[in-house]
Amino acid sequence: MLWLLLLPLPLQALGATAKTLGVSPRLVSEYVPSKSNTWTCLDGSKQIPWDYVNDDSCDCADGSDEPGTGACPNQPFYCQNEGHIGAFIPSSRVKDGLCELDCCDGSDERPGVCEDVCKEVGQAHKKKVEEETKIRKTGSKIRSTYIAYAHKEKKRLEGVIEASATEIAIRENEVIRLRDITERAESLSAAALELKQQSPLYISLVTHSNALKSLQREHKKHLQREEELSDILNALRTGYNPNYQDMAVLEAVRGWEEMAGLPHINDVGKDSVSNEEAGVQEDTASDVAEPEEALDDEMWSAEELEKDLDDLLNSDYVSLLLEHDEYVQSPTEGSALFDIASYLPDSVVPQFEGFRETLVSWLVTLGIIKGETPSSTDTSHLRQALTDAENELKKVKKEKEDAENDIKEIFNVHGYGLEGEWKKLDGTCLRTEVGDYTYEVCLFGEAKQIPNKGGSTFSLGKFASWNPSPDVKPGEEAYYQKQIYNRGTRCWNGPERNVVLLLSCGTENTLHSVVELEKCEYQLTGTTPALCRPLDNFGGKEGKNSNASRDEL
Ligand code: MAN
């Protein structure tokens, strides 16, 4: 209490000032003594002598008797900060010998410890606020153009949705029509094919083919039998005993040798038979293959039969039938009836065309000419048209779906903001060069680290969310002051690269700084007009706090 005596103020005034030291303006009226010079604790729990207030000794249970001394724990101390903005500090920081900017008037310390710097602090603060206000004013104008853009974009997307809905209806009908035509044409083609397959030429072709197949099978059987017989006769030739003079055996051996073009076994000697054998086989084969009489030009040699017959028998007779059909089809448009139009003046051609169609249909009905039978089996162009129409329909449906999803995001608190102020920035890329890299963030897209001297670019992640902190409510200013980009290129022996982008109000969309806080975890800072709310519309925490401080003054 000694320091109070040192102040150059009349004692009464000094006491009064001292009693309300640290009291917030809202409660000053409570700090007056009763007639009997007593005072009641703010919670009403106790009556104490007025002298006990701010006497550096805690008497009330709620600590209200020591607003300015720090004697009671966990009490707020109010610094008036005249010339600046009043502020509260905790009682633990009262009389701790430290001068702090929150209490620029030094009222929390003993007199003489801290200078009153509120004038300077107040001026600097005013200047800063003025600058910020200027930026906010300009920024909020830009922001309002972003909002206007979002409304325009919404209208445009509504137009897209409406137009694509109409187009979908038309295209759906077109698909139904084409599907119907294609299916009918395809079933007609099946009927036409069945009809064609009854043609005598086709039936005969198939019969020939079957006969040839059977012949080939029998031929192969005979070749096999011949080989087995050769083996038996060769064994007989080399194995028989000439000393027995068995004429039947000798005759058989000689007969076989003659037929197969072999020398008589007694002249050759049995030892060399095995060597001779290979040659025998070959000779025999060539003897057999050798034509007894010259072949006609178009007849097949044994070799061709062996090599090519299978291919021939594997022909696709249905395709052949269709090709044949196309080949023999007489060109209907060559007839005089179809040529007349080219001799007529243009003005009467439409009437003539109509008349021609009616005439042709009569002639077909009367059986005088052959109408267009379902002969065209090629429905692939129809199928293609149907596929194209289905693809177009899918495309338009996708366009509509995308527009519907986009529209949902525009005025969504988790998307482009309740006012749609972020929509304009979708895909805007911000860049800055730091060290060996250029850092790029395409808002709502991907962040990248691009080496300046060559090498591979790393993805630092894709947009994942706004500020995910549970303490921050979606929609408030702090929510939009942070963007998270994650799942970037994995760090060697580390996590996937990711980015926290801290944004504040600024007249331009720019990046200011990049720091790699942990390995592969990057913190980027930047500014954007999207965060410059109009001055009369401070919706976030920041705004509320500033208002609160003013109230206290
Ligand atoms: C690259 C860059 C750095 C990162 C290392 C980790 O050099 O992406 O930012 O720290 O890889 O290996």
UniProtKB/TrEMBL annotation:
It comes from the Eukaryota. The keyword Disulfide bond applies. This is Glucosidase 2 subunit beta. The keyword Oxidoreductase does not apply. Residues 267-296 are annotated as: Disordered. GO terms for cellular component: glucosidase II complex. One of its GO terms (biological process) is N-glycan processing. Keywords: Coiled coil, Disulfide bond, Endoplasmic reticulum, Signal. Residues 1-18 form the signal peptide.
